[in-house]
Amino acid sequence: MDSVLFTNIRPHDLLVVDGRIADPSTRPENTVIVDGGGALALPAPVDAHIHPDKTTWGHTWLSRTPASTLRELIEGEVKARAGMTASVAERAGALMDSAVARGTRAWRAHVDVAPEYGLANVHGVREAAEARRHLLDVQIVAFPQLGLLTRPGTAELMERSLGEGADVIGGLDPLGIDGDLHGHLDVLFGLAERTGAPLDIHLHDGGEQGLAQVREIARRATGTRVTISHAFCLAEARELDDLLAESNVALTTCALGADPVLPVGPLTAAGVLLAAGSDGVRDPWTPFGDGDMIARAHLLAYRTDARTDEELAACYAVAAHGGAALLGLERVDLKAGDPADFVLVPAASLAEAVVDRPAPLLVVRGGAVIAREGRLLERSPR
Ligand SMILES: Nc1ccnc(=O)[nH]1
């Protein structure tokens, strides 16, 4: 039996037996003791929306050109990618290492699929993830960034990607990009029904046009688990909250710059499943981001004007519990039986951690210490 006691930590010591938190009164012989230096244990967070095939993380700085519309961003990216010299696996892998050292336990990665790229981006991200299976769980969404109906061949590639490293079928603004709500959703839900894969649809479209699409997605999402990512149209409009809570639809938000952010309090109170993510990190779309989900919980709190300890904690819960639920991972509450996936941070309380966004002193995955003071440890033979 593999047994480790993390002691001198708050809110209480954690005994880990064979990768799970165990009842501390049953400590096996030969338990290894790790001193946590008085730090606070938190469930490891989940990045439920990141674009690792686009990142330049760990490689040459990219200077961005002005872009004011989604189309300009998409077109600028196609050009910028052509100049990237490091491979997808190298760039995505560098970002994975950094995110893991900052405590992230799992990713849902949106990865571009298009006739121009074939499945190279999916293969690259999967290769990086395979090399880090002991560090991070990675789900890949086959994402039609350049359009679905408007880029013939994309749907076929997305279906093929499911056998080659992808797990989820993506979508993108059925009206705003493809100009055909029912045509776009027919393809996505058709793929989901045939393959059993869940859906995750980017929806930037705002206002009534956005809300009409949310209604139609919720109406169709009976047998299929669907995530709507960004859902800017729901930032201010609360009239669909009950519908969403009763549906098979979850939401992700990224709390980016000037983009609308989904309100944590009202959505959580209504019972809507909400998770958070980094979105693009240091890529042709944005110079910002770092894959740190403790810092993302801070941005979510800042953008939603959190003040009370409860409001600050709720933002961390979106990153940790919302993300775990969205990815279908076990929830970590630091109680006996839970997976031993946690971080130890130098903070007096969860609220203080969300405000201070400290680098974890230790990152623990399945009971093994995998990072210390913001740095990955060399892989230890087990
Ligand atoms: N926020 C976004 C990042 C990347 N691609 C998108 O379509 N949207």
TrEMBL record:
Tell me which domain of life the UniProt entry assigns to the organism this sequence originates from. Answer: Bacteria
Provide the alphabetized UniProt keywords. Answer: Hydrolase
EC class: hydrolase
The cross-references to Gene3D superfamilies, in alphabetical order and at most eight, read: Metal-dependent hydrolases, Urease, subunit C, domain 1
Q: Which Pfam families match?
A: Amidohydro_3
Q: Which GO terms describe its molecular function?
A: cytosine deaminase activity
Segments forming domain Amidohydrolase:
33-369
According to the UniProt entry, the coiled-coil residues are none
Q: What is its EC number?
A: 3.5.4.1
Q: Which PANTHER family match?
A: BLL3847 PROTEIN, CYTOSINE DEAMINASE
User: Do you know which NCBIfam families this protein is assigned to?
Assistant: PRK05985.1
Q: What is this protein called?
A: Cytosine deaminase
Instruction: Supply the source organism for this entry.
Output: Nonomuraea dietziae
The top of its lineage is: Bacteria, Bacillati, Actinomycetota, Actinomycetes, Streptosporangiales
